[in-house]
Amino acid sequence: MSAESHISNLWPEYFQEFPCFSEQVVRPGCHPRKLEHGKRSKKAIVLVHGLTDSPYYLLAIAEYFHQNLGYNVYLPLLQGHGLKHPGGMAQVSLAVWKENVRFALQAAAENSDIVSIGGFSTGGALSVYLAFAEQQVTGEIYLFSAALGIYGGPMALFSGMLEFFLRMPVVRLMRNTRPLTGRHLYRYDRVPLNSAGELSKLILQINKLIFSSGAKIGAKRIFAAWSEYDRVINVRKLSRLQSLTGKDRFVSYVISEEARVEHAWVVLREPIFARNSGPGEAPLELANPFFSEMMAAMHRFNTAC
Predict the structure, then answer these.
(1) Is CATH 3.40.930.10 the right assignment for the domain spanning 4-303?
(2) Considering just the CA atoms, what is the radius of gyration of the chain in Å?
């Protein structure tokens, strides 16, 4: 799956709405995208990428929704991501990330009867928050390695402490001069602390909106996929979300610890290789060996709607 093969799916209206982005300043393959059928569809979905990566990571899932399930699909690019010159992601803002996704939701609502939302990692957390904060989300929620909490060691013992630290104002003052762009074509080579701090703020908002109340989430149907081997997110939060969801309305696809599938691999149909990688060179990130099975589970969930 090459970036060039998707050039026709670029989203020019997104560039007009958010002038900080353009075809010139965004890295090849990292652009916001839309996959439409050329007419109003019954269903549409907004798929939101994760922290420091780009819509490329969700293209295989987007194609499945578009080709196999008949959806119009919208993939926004979050502020500060996918840039040739990201400037350390110094100015990223959770508020702007929400605006990025709201614009995509509006576009989806204008071209379909039912709007679903989903995402990978930070995009999954944004999906959960906006699904319960925005009336435009009338369909289902699809989560892939959703960052509803940050990994804090075995049993998530230090998750809360780490999230609290990342929200402290001093984090904005901490700098790492190592470049963000490097070997990875479709994401940055590291996560700046200030952008992780914005994710931590989102996690706190989700805690207040959903987890602290202890209330049943109600009518929303949720499909969630994750790996037990994940060392980026707090997977216990996904199990907690399941316990709060209405009966029979949460379907999970869980990859066992023994399979050793890492965080980002869950959404990848094909491996990602480094820039200018040579023959026989190992990929930077492997494909999910259970991708087809995960899509089949998602398909069953979708057709049961």
Answers:
(1) no
(2) 18
